[in-house]
Amino acid sequence: MQRFGLLCVSRCAVMLVGFAVAGCSGHGGALPSMPGGMPASHLAQGKPDPRMAQLETNFVRQLRAHSIAHATLNGVALPKTYAVHRPTGFSSAGGNDFESLGFTISSGGTYTGLLAVHSAYRPNDFTVTFPSGSPSTTSFVLAPYGYPPNGSCYAVGSFYASTSSAISNAFLVQNMCSNSTVAYPINDAFRSAFVVPAADGTPSYYTVTFTTDAHPTSSSVWRTWLYDFPASQWVEVAETTGLGSSTSGGDGFIAQLAQGLCPNIPTVAASNLALFDASTQTFASLQPTMSGGVTSSFVSPGTASCFTDDGTHNGAVYQYGAVPNNEWIVQNKSGTQTQSIQQFPLPSCDLSPTNTCYYHTRTPDGIAAGPDGNLWFAELDANSIGRMTPAGTVTEWEIPTARGEPADIAAGPDGNLWFTESNSNKIGRITPSGAITEFTLPHYDPLAITAGPDGNLWFVGGGGYGYVGRITTAGVVTTWATPTSGSYPQDITAGPDGALWFTELGGNQLGRITTAGTITELASIWAPGGITTGRDGNLWVTDGGFQGGAPGIDQVTTGGTVTGYPTAGHSPGAITVGNDGNLWLTDGGSIGRFNYGGTITDYAIPANTQTNDIAAGPDGNLWFTEPGANTIGRITP
């Protein structure tokens, strides 16, 4: 996810520590206040992140134990002479200009820390490019960029500049108290330690900037931490002492772009924004009104044309702010990118004695974005787990159990991939390097699997018997039978309410299970199949016959209210949220995009091959499996 750079209210300039900005009256290293924002009624609920509860717990545990590990990163100090200015010819209504959006947070209370999930891209993934002849060396994007209220010394974010120097594509730590800035390149070493797919698949790091003083003074110690996923701990990147001159805080996006066409960028976003309360050592999800008189509001991008919300949720900007996700998203404006489909064939199956295939296809089934920036998928009839890089390079590992038939796969909170073996009684775990461990279940036929909000993996299976299972990252298994016999559970997802939701194909209903194991069956839906949590804070389900008629897509509130959208002529199957904020689904021989308002736009697959599962990739694209064609497909949103 991304953050925004902090801005001078006067539009004329952006003041970064270490950046001299022409045309802006100097405030030294101080963070200027953010402008007023949009009413809270504009904010809606986003997709929850299953890692957050565990990461917050780990943070408090390390803090109380005074356990501070230090990151080993090579930073680049930005020269104070680095200038970012606005050449003549820039226009507020022009193609590219100074644009910003995000959340502003007022001072007050005892909130002295900001925790956020920020998107992060390598140079090859996010290259800020501009038309020939434009002054590209003065163009940059800070996305996202954030800092806590009440005098923070630090502001941190993802920095992208149109330059070949070491400061391009970096994690930026700006010290407002010492007037200095250090950039840590977002290279492979940084990604392997800190970057994982967020809840919607966007490659992101998890960061917190804070002081433990409830009422900061000039003697307060400020720290910036990143979460190291392989080490399962927070590590310190920076520490300083002082008191910043800005009492407000914020998190958002800022761009100063050369005049010309809007740059072609991937999704940038910040989510799960939470404030650290130093008096209680707890986190509170960012809301319009908080304790101690603290308020937050959304800053609109105004009239600049590259990233203005066009109101259709197919435009440049999406914003969400209620519990639990507190998210802002920036994307290209509608029409600047076109949908394109590419297919990547998998190795053939010759059915020789040395080949693990059972049939003439490897039958790729479930697919998920991995913590290593690759796509991972289950090969049902090859009895293997596959990995595909965004460039299409495939590596495969056979699972130990013969004819285990892996069906679904999900990224776990431990940095590994977890998969179901649909023809055995096992759940498998595979590390990014390919080491496989299997865990035995008390029941057979596990089918779908997902990461839960409690730091565990949750799965469904059992066919007509029907069960929901939980497995810890240590391999401890607990299962619960579904109340309805013949339920045939099909899919499961983490809901927006902290519970897990699953479809019962045979029971014609949805199930909800709390992390403590209490199951409720509700929401009558005919032959429900795929399920996901949408960016609107509701569940979205595909069904086999809307109200007994044509197949459909259903919106389900956490209270069980169903709003159905019949989709005559379509065959909706698996469903997920794309990096563009829309719902994406497999639709027979096509991939469909659903805009929350009842309209499906289909994109035909070459040769009209059947599609099975779909996932948002770490590269901003959607990736899907084609079992009959023995291929993995990619579509640009």
Structure description:
The two termini are 17 Å apart. By secondary structure, the protein is mainly β. It is built from two helices and 48 strands. Strands 2, 6, 11, 12, 13, 14, 16, 17, 19 and 20 form a ten-stranded mixed β-sheet that branches. An eight-stranded antiparallel β-sheet has the order 3-10-9-8-7-15-5-18, with no helix packed on it.
Q: Averaging pLDDT over every residue, what do you get?
A: 78
Q: Tell the overall outline.
A: globular
Assign the structural class, choosing from mainly alpha, mainly beta, alpha/beta, alpha+beta, or little secondary structure. Answer: mainly beta
Percent helix among the residues?
under 10%
User: What is the number of E strands?
Assistant: 48
Outline the low-pLDDT stretches: 1-47, 79-96, 130-136, 310-317, 320-324, 333-338
Given the structure, what is the number of helices? 2
* Distance, first to last CA: 17 Å
Mind describing the biggest β-sheet? 10 strands, mixed
Give the C-alpha Rg.
24 Å
Which range does the strand content fall in?
A: 35-45%
